[in-house]
Amino acid sequence: MTGIGAAREKWEKWEKCPAGIQGACERARGRGFVKSALDMAKPPLSLSVSASCVFGFVLFDPSPPLWPLVLSALGVFLLACGAATLNNVQDRREDARFERTRKRALPAGDVSAVRALAQAVLLMTAGLAALWGLSGGLALGGAGAAACYNGIYTPLKKKTRLAVFPGTVCGMLPPLMGWMAAGGDPFSPEIGAVMAILGIWQVPHSRLAVADWLDSNALGWIVLFAASLVFWGENAFDLTGLSRGLLALDAGLCVAASAYFLFLSVKPNRHKAVFHYLNMALPLGMLVLLAAKWGRI
Known about the structure:
Blueprint: H1 3-15, H2 19-29, H3 33-41, H4 43-60, H5 66-95, H6 113-132, H7 136-156, H8 164-181, H9 189-210, H10 216-236, H11 241-263, H12 270-293
Helix pairs in contact: 4-5, 4-8, 5-6, 5-7, 5-8, 6-7, 7-8, 8-9, 9-10, 9-12, 10-11, 11-12
């Protein structure tokens, strides 16, 4: 047997192994401490959560003081990393059963649950301490968001699709925290509009992230998101003709692209294309609202 043939045979045997044995193989290939830690903390996802906090801060103050901005963004980032790590600990048994998740650090056996839990505690404590440095109210809000995510959403998602709603609440809080860190009124219609838009967006976003959701229900939620973007932008912000047109264009393109990939395209993994268009539509819409708020367009 040639060297290539032998390597292929070994790989095929590894793919057929139970998850625990695969974990041993992964360790033999040397997934290190840093890679395992990053795998559990999900930095890209946590950065997006932190970015929504920065958006809320800048929405209130276009020339923010550097230290409060950095401290609030860092606190939310570390707290999100800790919550993601704890989520890995909570889901480790379920993750071992599915092809999509069984190679993560915990189900693969690259890190112990105790070490992962220690990482979660360390990150969440550091995040809460950073928020506490700004105000006790922000730290309390961060703790509440983490409790909602790890205490309600994570256990509930194993039992019902309705778990998406407490998960949505968690995702609505970071821009509010940034807004409050900048000194904004939590009952302002502007931040309320942003939270409403973000909350509706998260329902199709979270479903499309993990499933082939290719039916009229998916399009219905996307249309609802697009309508909320235009409605709340119109009613909570002082839009110009240009900003109003850009917002409508963003919403319309999102719906049109989603409808095409859901019902007309024959490409595989169409839900991923819808997912990406949805992920582009939200930040573009928020940038339009931000520019409109400060008279840039």
